[in-house]
Amino acid sequence: MKEHDIEQFIEWSHNIGAFKHENIDLKFISSECGIGGILTSDIQASEDDQVDLLSVPLENCLNVRNMNREFRDLISELKLIADGNNDKNEELASQWKGTNMFENGLIVFYMFLIYELHVEKEKSTHFPYLNLLPREFTTALYFDEDEMAALRSTNLYKSVQSIRQNLKQIYETKVEYLMNKYPQKFDRQVFSYENFMWAFSAVWSRVFPIEYPAENGEGVEIVPTLLPTVDILNHKFNAKITYFTGSDRRFYLKTRESLKSGDYVCNNYGAKSNDSFLLSYGFVIPNNSEDTLYVQFGISDDGNEELVQFKKNLGFYLKKQQLPEDMLDSIRICMMTEDDFYLAKQSTISQHREQSKDSVYRFSVKNEFKMLHTLRSLFISKRRLFPTTIEEDEEELSEETNFNMQNILIYIIGQKKIIENALKCIDEKLSTLLGTYTKLVDNNNHQENILQTMKNIFIENSGKLSVEMRPELNSFHAISKESISKGEIVMIVKSEELIDVDNALDSPFGEFYTEAREEDLSANLDDEMAVMFYIMFEMFSSPNSPLKSNNHKKFFNLLLKHYNFQETPFLSEKLQDELSGTNTLDLIQRTRDGLSEVFEEIKSALIQSGVSFHSLIFY
């Protein structure tokens, strides 16, 4: 960008009545940041003594109200078509019928900007401003194939694809209609799709919502407006800025804090998530406290029309803090049976929250467990969509030099941290729930047997770690026996030895499971069940079963040898007698019933996929 262009813009903005504080110097910062304001001297300001930084008269700003008469008349003509009052038989005129005039007015506005910059050029009243705008943007709409591929597992990828498709569809229908009807005014080479996308991006990367008197004379309406001079400033999250439209119909931007010489003068675009910043403005904020992850649930109904309304298109925005109660309560309701729902709706959700504020569940233990289990499966599935870990992304970010890829990595890391925090919150709630309503079985022999198994299986131990049982915490701990240097390998767990969904689906059993999952989409054939059935086949089917891989034979044999499954609360009749009359026994029985139902469902699906009945294990 040439200094001459900036000087020409400053002179033009002064001529149209714009104001710039004398201590602000406009300069080109970088290709990513564009033009910004830098202070040449201090500015003293406070909450009680705000100082004007920039202002501009609205009559000289750009929006659909301030276009020239020819383009305003074009909107009026299109409105007739949209209202169905025009009987002309142009083939493409039908594209405008029944559409929203707010959208149509903006499309004409995009065409107006292209016309002013590329046709009128220096003759345009707004040329010094339009000539200063970037010709390409760092927003997600401009990402290339490699950059889009990096976004593939994110919600932003879907948003970009949707906007691109909509823009293309609008261009190929509505803009095409304008070019066909007015070929002398709208030359195809000038009004190309690339220029149309530029105009769209120029508007939505710097637009302000300005109130104007409604055209029908009733109240006000919001008109998206470009504010020359004011929209030059870049974003700073905590900048103390006030902006408003004065009674003199000028738009003012003021500072409520003192600014030092040499600092950048910044606007505050508001509390937005990184996907919003990247989509609209082309940058992100590292460790953005306002980052969100959108999750949507589509849960099948059970025929109850009143309950169905809670079970469709449930969408929530999550931050890094605690899980939102509205989301938890919505999933709790979705997990209800019809009878549970009937009882629950006798009170309002506020009453339920008040009544359960000192409890670890809202409606029932079973309902709480199903809700948490469902959420956990959802977030684990979302985490699996990403091929890399947070640590790998952070390492790549430290070496990345491409501006767009840096932004993408920061955005993805933020999304993953929200997922990890959600899983942490869910696991804490599950731990509290099970810790409160499950009687732990203290059996030192079981603990010692598992401890010995952990010490000897799948682990190459440097000798500097000791695996010990902590009875007071009912957990195993890996404890250092010697000083460990940074980067030193102390333990190796081979990936092929892991018992995970990949190994499960790669086994002979997994081939049938995958086929069953593809043939019966309604069955509960998720990744978690794949691992569970893989473990059952490996441990309990006959030694010569064709469905066994024997990849983890040593581990499973030790488990069978040392761990007495019959003494767990789920199987021990003696322990169940001791628990008679308690909530724990009710939880055990409900869990057994649920497992039995799922087991039979999956067994049936496997038989349909070709597994011999005699090869199956039994519940």
From TrEMBL:
CDD domains tied to this protein: SET_SpSET10-like
GO biological process, one term: methylation
Classification via Pfam families: Rubis-subs-bind
Gene3D superfamilies cross-referenced by the UniProt entry: Rubisco LSMT, substrate-binding domain, set domain protein methyltransferase, domain 1
UniProt entry keywords in alphabetical sequence: Methyltransferase, S-adenosyl-L-methionine, Transferase
Domain Rubisco LSMT substrate-binding span(s) in chain numbering: 316-419
A GO term for molecular function: protein-lysine N-methyltransferase activity
Any one GO cellular component localisation term in the record: nucleus
Superkingdom of the organism of origin: Eukaryota
Leader sequence segment: none
PANTHER family: N-LYSINE METHYLTRANSFERASE SETD6, UNCHARACTERIZED PUTATIVE METHYLTRANSFERASE
Protein name: Predicted protein
Organism in which the protein naturally occurs: Naegleria gruberi
